[in-house]
Amino acid sequence: MPFLVTSASGANGDGFGALLAFELDGTLRGTFIDDDRIVDPRGLAVDPNENLLFLNSGADRVLAISSHGRIVRDTGRIEGLNAGGANFGPDGRYFVGSRRTRTIVALSSSLDATVEYLLPPLVVPFPRGFAFGHDGRLFLASGIGPNGQGDNAILAFTLSTSLQPSRLVTDPELSPLDLAIAPNGNIVVSSERPFGALDAVTSVREYDTTDGHLVRVFSPKGKAEFRKPRGLRFAPNGLLYCVARDEVVGFDFASGECLGAIARLPRLNGQALEFFPC
User: Fold this and answer.
1) Which of 31, 136, 229, 259 is 20 to 30 Å from 15 by CA-CA measure?
2) C-alpha to C-alpha distance for 240 and 248, rounded to whole angstroms
3) Residue 141's pLDDT is what?
4) How much of the chain, in percent, has pLDDT values that exceed 70?
5) Strands 94-98 and 103-107
6) Could you tell me which residues are beta bridge partners of residue 217?
7) Backbone phi, then psi, for 4, in 5-degree steps?
8) Alpha carbon 123 to chain centroid distance?
9) What is the largest CA-CA distance in the chain?
10) β-pair type (201-207, 162-169)
11) How far is CA 225 from CA 175, 250, 268, in A?
12) Whole-angstrom Cα distance, residue 51 to residue 180?
């Protein structure tokens, strides 16, 4: 199954500003879809019910794309959305990290309904990835924004009872960029600390969802440059992929070993990754 990567542009770096397709061996297919509505693309998620790829465009809109590379749904411009990461929730809705309002918003998969707040505005200083756990809780990474302000923590929300969060993870070595749920139910988080520093320590960190303790640290160990790690996704075979500057890096989740760069592409400036049959 090929994988797709969003490459940022503009204020996010000198990237391609496109949705790129790669073979599993890392060979670049090229731009998956060429459409002027895709501007500085960010989060990606696949709707399992309709096999559509949902993409957050930097032009304050969300697009649904078919496996043939055609846009089949478009929200139109949503003033102030400034979308970051994305995931589908247990209720089938599409959830987006809104960086301007510092929260998570929900859209119906039809993309024709009003945007709703899942969490209150300004719930964190800067949202940096989120996912729904196996137990129904929402885990939200609170990171550092482009202005250098924010905090470094993982919050847990029990949506069925209260929106009052608990601070699950407090790790002095963590500066989160994205968050995913592992097959074992734990949280994995891409980290760059200090955020934006040339000598930042980069890693993927696994945390237990019961008490938030650090389970393991995945590091490149010289097998990849692993600069500016961002979006995380698990492949159908259970391997963990992380997009980064100029490369996509793979990890064997079972052993914790880095597999090196799965794909290399100068100026990639990867933001999000998704496996999509196309």
Assistant:
1) 259
2) 10
3) 96
4) 97
5) antiparallel
6) 205
7) -115, 145
8) 19
9) 47
10) unpaired
11) 18, 12, 13
12) 20
Token pair of 56, please? 């957050």
pLDDT tens-digit profile of 24-54?
Answer: 999 999 999 999 999 999 999 999 899 999 9
* CA separation for the pair 56, 62 (Å, rounded): 5
Q: How does residue 56 score in pLDDT terms, banded at 50, 70 and 90?
A: very high
The answer to whether the CB of 229 falls within 8 A of the CB of 242 is yes
Q: Among all chains, which residue has been given the structure tokens 């009872």?
A: 161
Measured from the Cβ of residue 145, the count of other Cβ atoms closer than 10 Å reads: 15
What is the Cα–Cα distance from 86 to 72, expressed in whole angstroms?
Answer: 18
**pLDDT computed for residue 150 by the predictor:** 86
What is the per-residue DSSP string for the chain?
--EEEEE--GGG-SS--EEEEE-TTS-EEEES---TT--S---EEEETTTTEEEEEETTTEEEEE-TTS-EEEE----TT--EEEEEE-TTS-EEEEETTTTEEEEE-TTS-S--EESS-TTSSSSEEEEEE-TTS-EEEEEEE-TTS-EEEEEEEEETTTEEEEEEEE--TT--EEEEEE-TTS-EEEEEEESTT-TT-EEEEEEE-TTT--EEEEE--TTS----S---EEE-TTS-EEEEETTEEEEE-TTT--EEEEEEE-TT--EEEEEE---
Dist. CA 252–CA 255, nearest whole Å: 6
In which band, very low, low, confident or very high, does the pLDDT at 162 lie, cut at 50, 70 and 90? low
Residue with tokens 């793979």, as numbered in its chain: 250
What span, in angstroms and rounded, lies between the C-alpha atoms of 278 and 204? Answer: 28
- Provide the pairing of β-strand 103-107 with 138-144: unpaired
Distances 252 to 114, 134, 245 between C-alpha atoms, Å: 40, 21, 20
> In angstroms, rounded to a whole number, what is the distance separating the alpha carbons of residues 251 and 258?
4
The residue whose two tokens read 């899942």 is 118
